[in-house]
Amino acid sequence: MWCIPRVDDEFKRRMHEILDLYEKPYDAQLPVVCLDEKLVELRSDAREGYHAEGGYRRDYEYQRHGTANVFMITDPKGGRHWARVTARRTKRDFAHAMAFLAARYPSVITIHLVMDNLNTHTEASLIETFGVERGRRLWARFSVHYTPKHASWLDQAEIALAVTTRCCLGKRRFATIDALRHTLVRFWAARRKLRWKIDWKWTATDAKKWLKTLKSQH
Fold first, then answer.
1. Cβ-count burial of 12 within 10 angstroms (0-12 exposed, 13-18 middle, 19+ buried)?
2. Looking at the DSSP assignment, which residues form a beta bridge with residue 73?
3. What would the pLDDT profile of 73-113 be if each residue is shown by its tens digit?
4. pLDDT digit string, tens, across residues 19-50
5. Where are the domains of the chain?
6. Is 3.40.50.1370 the CATH number for 9-216?
7. 188: phi then psi, degrees, rounded to nearest 5
């Protein structure tokens, strides 16, 4: 299954908090949104490929052009998803991703946000970027739910990132951030139009059974 070094009370509390949140009926005024990040290597072909029967052929060698960061933002029950590509994954990049997300839901009561414990995922990042007043006002738009340590698999944005890798990026190479951004924006715009949703299956009841099994093994 997953690599879990320790299941303590804090782990259980956070896990059940998130699973209970996922089980609530969809409410447009209380959207549940998940955020995650992924590093993508920028590469170009070392030699020009060619088209042949069965598809495009390319040499295994490639040239490196650094990396880019992808913020994956997904509303699993609402069928709304966005991929934001940045050069880095700094506090400022995170703060602007949060501002982008808040603007997508301008009139809701609160945005329930599920994300992991990365050190940039804090109110301090928003304050440092936008100043105290605006930073705190923006952070107040969210009800933040952090995944337990070593349990980022509870963040459904990981599923959206897996879909990105499998169905969009594949073995394709992108030499520039703009090329990567263009591809991802188009990919997720099409799925927003279709209202593609994530069918999350693991419930709080399943978690309780799993915890009992885990306890019996130790």
1. middle
2. 35, 82
3. 999 999 999 999 999 999 999 999 999 999 999 999 999 99
4. 999 999 999 999 999 999 999 999 887 556 54
5. 9-216
6. no
7. -80, -25
